[in-house]
Amino acid sequence: MIPKPGSCEELIYKALSEAFETLVFEEVVLSEVTSNKLPEVNLDGWWASIKMLAPLPWGEIIITVPDTLMNRFTEAILGLSGETPTAEQNSDNLGEILNTICGRLMALRSNPDRVFRIGLPVSGRGLIPEQSGPFRCVDVLVGEEHIYLLAPESFWDDIIWELELS
Amino acid sequence: MRTILIVDDSATARRIIQQCLEMIGCTSCEFVHAADGIEALGILRSRDISLLITDMNMPNLDGTGLLKAVKGSPKLNHIPVFVISSLTNPALENELKSIGVDKIIYKPASPQKLLDGIEQTVGKEFFE
Asked: Which chain A residues are Cβ-neighbours of B110 within 8 angstroms?
C-alpha cells in the first residue's frame, strides 16, 4: 500500500519509519489500514501501550511486535551479540520504541501550537489490552513479519481535521 | 573527570544516550544514571555534575519538576541541561527555554544531535 501524499496514513507511516529506521535500523513497509479489526497476535508476542492525555484524552495507542522480531530489535538497540534478550529488556525497549513513535507522530502534525501530553508506556506479552471504542489498525511489515499499530478513531479524525486546516 | 547525569525512566533510552556520547568522544567521562527526577535530585545534591541530560515524561518527578528544581537552586543552576524527549513541539520548546533549558533534542537521540548540542552550549572544550 502506498499512502496518499498529505494523508493521515502517510503521516503515521512516516512516524513509524523514522522510529524504526533510527532505533533498530529496519525498514518498514505499509501493508494495510483497517477499521475495528483486531490483529491476530501470538501469545508470545509483545505489546506496548501509551495513553494520550492532552490536548484531548483520545485513548491508547498500542503496538504489537512478534517475539522473534522483538528479540532482533532488542539485540540491535542494545548491541547484544549472541545473548538472548531478557523479558525486561524487550519490555523496556518496546515501550521506548512506542514512546518515540508517539513523539514523532505529535511532532509531524501540522499545528505547532498544541502541546501534547502522553502517559508512560506500559508493556506486556500475549493478549493486547481491550479497545474502549472504534479504532484503526495500521499493519506494517518488517521483512515478512507484521507489526500492528492501533490508534483510536477519534485520534485519527483529529489528525485528518488538522491536515484539512493546514 | 567530567560526570554526566542521564535521567530517563527507560534503561534503553539511558543506554542509547550514553552510547551516543561515548561515540562522540566522551570516553573519559563518568556516567551516572537516574530513573526519575527524585533520584536525579539526590545525585545532583551529592555529586559534582558537569552536564545533566533528562527526559520529560517520567514517573514520580517528571522533567519539568526536575528542571524547575535545578534552575531554581543557586547551587545547581549553573549545570548545563539538555532535554531529550519524544514530545517536543514549538509550544513546549518555548516553555522549556523559559525554564532555562540549554538544548532540546528530539528522540531518538543520535551522536550528531548530541555533538551539536555540546558544541553549541558548553563548547568543544567539554571533551578535553
From this structure: 22
- What are residue B18's phi and psi, to 5 degrees? -60, -45
A106: which chain B residues are within 8 Å (Cβ-Cβ)? 86-87, 89
CA distances (Å), origin B49, targets A81, A99, B6, B8, B52: 33, 27, 10, 16, 7
Determine the Cα–Cα distance for residues A61 and A53; give it in Å rounded to an integer: 11
DSSP labels for A58-105? -EEEEEEE-HHHHHHHHHHHHT-SSPPPPHHHHHHHHHHHHHHHHHHH
Instruction: Tell me the whole-structure pTM to 2 decimals.
Output: 0.88
Q: Is A138 helix (H, G, I), strand (E, B) or coil?
A: strand
Residues A20-67 pLDDT 10s: 998 888 999 999 999 888 887 777 899 999 998 877 778 899 999 999
Distance CA A97, CA B106 (A): 13
Residue A82's identity, in one-letter code, is G
Please tell me whether residue B99 adopts helix, strand or coil conformation.
Answer: helix
Q: For residue B62, give the chain A residue with the closest CA.
A: A120
- Burial zone of A12 (CB within 10 Å; 0-12 exposed, 13-18 middle, 19+ buried): buried
The amino acid that residue B128 corresponds to is: E
Among the listed residues A106, A136, A131, the one whose alpha carbon sits nearest the alpha carbon of residue A118: A106
Q: Which cell is A113 given?
A: 501550537
Length of chain B: 128
Residues 71-130 of A with CB under 8 A from B: 77-79, 89, 92-93, 95-96, 99-100, 102-104, 106-107, 112-121
Measured in whole angstroms, how far is the alpha carbon of residue A39 from the centre of its chain? 13
pLDDT tens figures, B8-29: 999 989 998 999 999 988 888 8
Whether B13 and chain A come into contact, CB under 8 Å, resolves to: yes
